[in-house]
UniProtKB/TrEMBL annotation:
Cofactor(s) the record lists: pyridoxal 5'-phosphate
Gene3D superfamilies: Aspartate Aminotransferase, domain 1, Type I PLP-dependent aspartate aminotransferase-like (Major domain)
Record's protein name: Pyridoxal phosphate-dependent aminotransferase
Organism this protein belongs to: Rufibacter sediminis
Source domain of life: Bacteria
GO molecular function: transaminase activity
Aminotransferase class I/classII large domain sequence ranges: 30-379
PANTHER family: FI04487P
InterPro entries (alphabetical): Aminotransferase_I/II_large (IPR004839), Kynurenine-oxoglutarate_AT (IPR051326), PyrdxlP-dep_Trfase (IPR015424), PyrdxlP-dep_Trfase_major (IPR015421), PyrdxlP-dep_Trfase_small (IPR015422)
Keyword vocabulary terms for this entry: Aminotransferase, Pyridoxal phosphate, Transferase
Length: 382
């Protein structure tokens, strides 16, 4: 008997990140595509994981997360953003930020609810909305600076808008929200009853003396927001998949109902290690300078090239126009660049639901200096 399966995600295939990483491996290209470092996390953090394992912390952690880790997250949040989150009822440790994003969307989006999405956007948002029966409503960011057009946002808001997903520092563009963006968002919350999902995984990668403007700094926003963060990004440990979500108690209750059946809990020794390492504030406080140095190095190395770099004020991504090199569509150019020039990148059109092609690609500069130099040497020959 032939069994037919009707896909819940008919338009979804293998992600571009997996595709480009496989292509990089196949052709021996330098991989500046997927957003992960090619250097290790702090040695002390690895030692703390080993210590936790040898101490016997190898069974399930409590589903909301290790109590000590949640306490440390609460202290960090108070110190950085002046927001006092109750570790028992408002903080949940998750198996990566992507799990937190999915849990938040699944917790509050009902069939037919509208969810506002700013494009270009991280590729997990829309599938999670669709799996919950929600309707994504797209608002394009203004090219090439990727600023929010608040008039367009307001025009798309309706009484059916359940959730507004925001992201700063922004993947893929590297743009960073300003205080006036939070002010504009606050004004809209006074007129419409939507919730907010704030993706802040690059919170410690903001450059040029700017600050990260978390929604947690504004009580009127914090009281209706899920705020998602990532230890993977902060500690160069993307493979550990440890993140967390801060939300008011009522939202956290619904969040945890999904979380407990999605992953139940996150790796116990990793939570113990991170809880201990959070006492080292220097690591995350010096991260902006660490990544700004890499951004500046990569930009200077590409100075002789025919790429036109767009402004990058946060994250570890650098966008670039390539029209002086090729008139290929961005997906084809990215494949050509991987095969012929030996450098793998990500085309920006994949971050748009209609694959808007603006002739722009994304480099990840979370790499060792020798990796960036080797990549630039190849790119400068084009």
């Amino acid at each position: 008997m032939h069994i037919q399966i009707q896909s819940k995600l008919p338009s979804v295939s293998t992600t571009i990140f997996s595709t480009m990483s496989q292509l990089a491996q196949q052709y021996g290209a330098i991989n500046l595509s997927q957003g992960f470092p090619d250097f290790d996390c702090p040695p002390e953090l690895m030692d703390l994981v080993s210590e936790a394992m040898r101490a016997g912390f190898n069974q399930y952690a409590p589903s909301p997360g290790l109590p000590l880790l949640r306490q440390k997250i609460s202290q960090k949040t108070q110190q950085l953003y002046g927001h006092s989150a109750n570790p028992d009822t408002e903080i949940t440790v998750t198996s990566g930020a992507t799990e937190a994003l999915f849990s938040a969307i699944a917790a509050v989006v009902q069939p037919g609810d509208e969810v506002l999405v700013l494009e270009p956007c991280y590729d997990s948002y829309v599938p999670a909305i669709e799996l919950s029966g929600g309707v994504p409503v797209f608002v394009p960011l203004q090219f090439p600076g990727f600023r929010v057009d608040w008039q367009q946002v307001e025009a798309k808001l309706t009484q059916k808008t359940r959730l507004f997903i925001i992201n700063s520092p922004h993947n893929p563009s590297g743009a960073v929200w300003q205080k006036e963006d939070l002010d504009a968002l606050t004004t809209l919350t006074q007129q419409y009853p939507f919730l907010i999902l704030s993706d802040e995984v690059y919170e410690h990668m903001v450059f040029d003396g700017q600050s990260h403007h978390s929604v947690l700094t504004v009580p009127a926003l914090a009281e209706r927001s899920f705020v998602v963060s990532s230890f993977g990004k902060t500690y160069h440990t993307t493979g550990w998949k440890v993140g967390y979500c801060i939300a008011p108690a009522a939202l956290t209750t619904e969040f945890r109902k999904v979380h407990q059946y999605l992953t139940f809990s996150t790796a116990t020794p990793l939570q113990h290690a991170i809880a201990a390492y959070l006492d080292n504030q220097e690591h995350y406080l010096t991260l902006p300078a660490f990544y700004q140095q890499k951004r500046d190095l990569f930009a200077s190395l590409l100075q002789p090239s025919k790429f036109e770099l767009l402004p990058c004020t946060g994250t570890y991504f650098q966008l670039a126009r390539y029209r002086q090199i090729s008139d290929l569509p961005d997906v084809e150019f990215s494949q050509w660049l991987t095969k012929e020039a030996g450098v793998a990148v990500i085309p920006i059109s994949v971050f748009y639901h209609q694959n808007l092609d603006q002739g722009v690609i994304r480099f990840c500069f979370a790499k060792k200096e020798e990796t960036l130099r080797a990549a630039a040497e190849r790119l400068n020959q084009l």
